[in-house]
């Protein structure tokens, strides 16, 4: 009971103290000229507006490189080569994204500070490609891997996938650079990057014609691709599209690293 009475007395004292502070604050407020009050309110509103603008426009810097392409093109092998210089863990088609934040294997022996890279290998299975959309907002670049050895049987499917990527709103608006990587070029029967580039452009031109004939209500792509009235070329894309060669199994992927470091600074 004594403790309860003590608490009541403390509560009464705190209430009186709060009333005194409130009274002093009101007196001071009435003594301040209206011009100063208005100026203070204006400064507060302006500061709040600036902070809101900063939060809206200062977005996190994109620092992720996405590996995309059809299943079996060698994306997962490439992922492990870039990470630790080995390919044994990438011999099985991945059904889940391989997500890693690491210093490139070739840069581990370099002196000084080297920033790690965020690399995501997106599964190429048709039912899993939609996962790419989840990672695009943070993408600084996309590596689209093509199997140069088995290119012709997969040319149409690869072109359709690439077409969908190049017409995505995020890719176009952010002008995300795309590297078309012709993998497995160490094989004698592999196609050259120039041949692959020309065939992809031809297939995409066919896709442009067929999809433009569909009614607007049925078109799933966000943006039209290419220049109206001209045969399609990758140079017509609003984002930069380049073509390179590599061999994940032999560890020849210097052009990939160059692309990575061009868009994610070390």
TrEMBL record:
Record GO cellular component, one term: Golgi apparatus
Residues reported to bind Mg(2+): 76
GO process terms (BP): Golgi to plasma membrane protein transport; intracellular protein transport; protein localization to Golgi apparatus
Annotated binding of GTP, by residue: 69-76, 124, 183-186
Membrane topology recorded in Swiss-Prot or TrEMBL: Single-pass membrane protein
Major place of residence: endoplasmic reticulum
Protein name according to UniProt: Signal recognition particle receptor subunit beta
Source organism per UniProt: Malus baccata (Siberian crab apple)
């Amino acid at each position: 009971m004594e403790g309860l009475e003590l608490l009541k007395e403390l509560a009464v004292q705190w209430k009186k103290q709060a009333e005194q502070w409130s009274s002093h604050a009101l007196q001071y407020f009435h003594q301040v000229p209206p011009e100063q009050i208005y100026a203070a309110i204006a400064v507060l509103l302006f500061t709040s507006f600036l902070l809101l603008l900063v939060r809206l426009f200062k977005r996190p810097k994109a620092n992720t490189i996405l590996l995309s392409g059809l299943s079996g093109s060698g994306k997962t092998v490439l992922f492990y080569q870039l990470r630790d210089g080995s390919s044994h863990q990438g011999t099985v088609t991945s059904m889940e994204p391989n997500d890693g934040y690491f210093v490139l294997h070739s840069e581990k022996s370099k002196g000084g500070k080297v920033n790690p890279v965020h690399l995501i290998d997106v599964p190429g299975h048709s039912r899993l490609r939609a996962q790419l959309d989840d990672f695009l907002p943070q993408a600084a670049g996309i590596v689209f891997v093509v199997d140069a050895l088995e290119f012709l049987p997969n040319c149409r499917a690869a072109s359709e996938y690439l077409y969908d990527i190049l017409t995505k709103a995020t890719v176009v608006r952010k002008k995300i650079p795309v590297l078309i990587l012709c993998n497995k070029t160490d094989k004698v029967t592999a196609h050259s990057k120039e041949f692959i580039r020309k065939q992809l452009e031809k297939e995409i031109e066919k896709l442009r014609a067929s999809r433009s004939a569909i009614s607007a209500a049925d078109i799933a792509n966000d943006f039209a691709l290419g220049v109206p009235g001209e045969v399609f070329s990758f140079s017509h894309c609003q984002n930069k599209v380049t073509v390179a060669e590599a061999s994940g199994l032999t560890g020849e992927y210097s052009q990939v690293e160059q692309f990575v470091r061009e868009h994610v600074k070390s």
